[in-house]
Amino acid sequence: MKRLVSGSSRGILAALLTAGLVLSGCAKGDGEPGGESTRSSTTSAASKASGEQSTDAPVVAEVAEASNDRVAAAGFGDVDTLLALGIVPVTVAPWGQPGDTGEKGVGPWALEALGDNDPAKIMGTASGFTGQIVEQIAATDPTKIIAVNAAVDEQARKDLEAIAPLATHSDEYQDWSVPWQEQIRDIAAAVGMSDRGEELIEESEQSFTDFASAHPELSDKTVAVVFPLKGELRVYTEDHNRGRFISRLGFRMPEELTEQAGDSFYVAVSPENYNTLSAADYVYVLDYQGSTDQLKNDPAFSSIDAVREGRVRYIDEDTANAMSMMNPLTIPWAVDRIEEQL
Known about the structure:
The protein is 39% helix and 13% strand. The N terminus is likely disordered. Helix 8 packs antiparallel against helix 9, helix 9 packs parallel to helix 16 and helix 15 crosses helix 16. By secondary structure, it is an alpha/beta fold. It starts with a strand and ends with a helix. The strands form three sheets. It has a six-stranded mixed sheet. Strands 2-7-6-3 form a four-stranded mixed sheet, sandwiched between helices. It folds into two domains: 152 residues, Rossmann fold (3-Layer(aba) Sandwich); 128 residues, Rossmann fold (3-Layer(aba) Sandwich), CATH 3.40.50. 50% of the residues are buried.
């Protein structure tokens, strides 16, 4: 009997990093932290040099008291949260490859907040903070560096801390696995705006709530969120931000598909099994560099019941990226785009 094949989360994560798909979508445990939790691992070059042992709380306070005039955004989507806080950073770390974002290195959801500003674009941080990248950040003369949605190893931490105080995610979460709410809290704390950070979380959550309230007819509907890649379709689970985004709108993930994912955040469906997607009420196909156009011309897909019955929605690449990188700017923007699809 033919079966769906569950993919390796490590393997696909590497593919997504190099393919330019937004990284925060690999997060697990969205919204799970409760009560007290460790905030930004924020340190300064001065404290390191003196050999002092510091804890999260006083170091966050130290960084928060510093000037916010020249903040370098070095993590994917960190620029969006900073802009939502009213801070225009001196650098931005665009996701993916050159051309995956606009000329200013941000998504369309951030253009209004960015205005006429044009931060330095630091490419390639998904592969690590190389010496060249560190030099590019240093050249902008930042007063602090925000690298929350990023993978900062020990050498990179040492190099970046030598430039300016550094804020990263806490050790409670693995790289690329920080819930979006915690990313906002970490970044807001690092710039001394924790109260505003909590307000942004509430406003973002309200976008989901408003959509669900406006469309009660969708509360029992299932949606398969799929991404075409390398001749197959990847069906996301709620362990990926894209699946989680759809769930927060009030939809349900089709268990008959996603339960086969195991510890992965997706299930791989081969062409001969494409019709299994029709078990969902809707199929949302996420575009990347024209992949949806290719899929539409694939007889194995165009012949499935969901296509013939008009239950497939094609989501443009910008919206797919916004869904994957949830933050105060992407969430309301992507919610509006999804509503347009209805």
